[in-house]
Write a structure and sequence with these properties.
CATH class of one domain: Alpha Beta
Strand content: 15-25%
Distance between the termini: 44 Å
Order of helices and strands: EEHEEEHEHEHHH
Number of helices: 6
Strand order of the largest sheet: 3-4-5
Shape: globular
CATH architecture of one domain: 2-Layer Sandwich
CATH topology of one domain: GMP Synthetase, Chain A, domain 3
Helix content: 25-40%
Largest sheet: 3 strands, antiparallel
């Protein structure tokens, strides 16, 4: 019979797992690179227009999206930008809960509101203008966690991707450029 360890949870974060993970990362010089992949299908008819299966540590989840009607989509399923907002807000929430837990702050409540302001005019008109104007996350908590919110703004992977220039590329399969091949080495 395998004995299951009981987790020490603070703010729904397993602090024992965090400690074990940190020890492993310390052996790797503080780094632990991970690559996430998504493969999906754009449907040329009907709704949803895009379907992908996302993998977790213990299951697979089928997600779907449509463009809103004003961009020619069906508007039945969540738009891709809504998933972006959800992903950033969820990542920030989890990152904030981790920072609170690591700093001994036990929360009674934590609620976040994500706000995304964007201009989809350039998608159709081609004018030179920023597509995304602002992303803001509003945090409500039962304790003053202002300093931990600031720390999380630096440590949240999703905010990091938005606030720093990261390598991006889009290419047709089988037609990878030399630059893309070098970047993956």
């Amino acid at each position: 019979m395998v004995k299951q360890r009981s987790a020490t949870l603070v703010n729904n974060i397993d602090l024992e797992m965090i400690a074990d993970t940190k020890k492993a990362f310390d052996k790797e010089g503080g780094h632990h690179r991970v690559e996430k992949d998504i493969e999906g299908v754009y449907r040329l008819e009907g709704s949803p227009s895009f379907i992908a299966e996302l993998r977790t540590d213990s299951s697979n989840i089928l997600v779907s999206s449509d463009e809103p009607k004003l961009l020619g989509g069906r508007g039945v399923h969540v738009s891709p930008l809504t998933y972006v907002l959800y992903g950033v807000t969820a990542c920030f929430a989890n990152s904030l809960a981790i920072q609170c837990s690591l700093n001994g702050v036990e929360l009674g409540s934590l609620k976040l509101k994500g706000h995304l302001t964007y201009d989809i005019g350039p998608v159709l008109t081609g004018i030179e203008s920023p597509l995304i104007e602002e992303l803001a996350i509003e945090v409500e908590a039962d304790k003053d966690i202002t300093e931990l919110i600031e720390l999380t703004k630096e440590r949240c992977p999703a905010l990091y991707a938005i606030n720093h220039a990261i390598k991006t590329d889009a290419f047709q399969s089988g037609r990878r450029t030399a630059r893309r091949t070098k970047a993956r080495r």
